[in-house]
Amino acid sequence: MADQESTNSVSTKEWKLIEKTMLQMTAEQRRARRWGIFFKLLTFVYLFSLLLIFKAEVDPKVHHGGESFTAFVDVNGVIAAGEDANADDIVSGLRDAFDDPGTAAIIMRINSPGGSPVQAGYVYDEIKRLRQLHPDTKLYAVISDLGASGAYYIAAAADAIYADKASLVGSIGVVASGFGFVESMEKLGVERRTYTAGEHKAFLDPFSPQRDQEVDFWQSVLNKTHQQFIGKVKEGRGDRLKEDPLMFSGLVWSGEQALELGLIDGLGSAGFVAREIIGEENTVDFTAQPDAFEKFVQRMGTVVGDVIVNRVASSNLQLR
Asked: pTM of the prediction?
């Protein structure tokens, strides 16, 4: 009888232990499910927020709600096909800005060292055309850090140009550069073999000796392009330009110096021009944006990059 009671007592303890273990497992599973639901919900909220931000940035014009505004079009970086400041994107943004009935005036914000004369010329001509189609809509060019060479070429088409007193403005010239390795090859005993159909086909080859006739020809090409540049600047700026023998020498000036030379019309930022000159502080950015999928991928990449940077920073690693 005592043995029976002892066995029953042991069995009861075992069942209680099993029951306790099962209850703990069930509680753990419930906690895991709750955390899983929480993180899924958090991910959904995050993605939904990104979608809302993304939608607002893709079509910024939805923000003006019929009110008048100052339109912005940015020209950032080298002006060239395939770059952010390519002629097609700049022209697309300008066309949208001119065509929008809410546009009070347009500010072309420039921070560029210049680039392709072909791309710059395309933008210049399109600005002239758009200004004729919309004579009541003023276009202002505002230079921040740099508005040189092809960037100034574009700016010259605007109704007026503004810059900071320390901005770098001008560089009205044309450059083509390269290297010559002929003597180095001779010292190394390397022979250059070039086969062409056309006497001057390889005249820019850095491994072949220069010929006076070809140098003169290439200089004539640069001179012709320079004269085209000068002609556009004079056409755009008119009698606002002051007489100076160095005006078209390729030199670059500060904003204050550029104002004295008539290369710009005043000193001020884009905000100053919108507020004090145009009189419309509401702004809408018409700068051409990447397509929807590309922009989403870029934003996701930025978020991932921020996470990685924060993790690295937390480990006290520094680059100096």
From this structure: 0.71
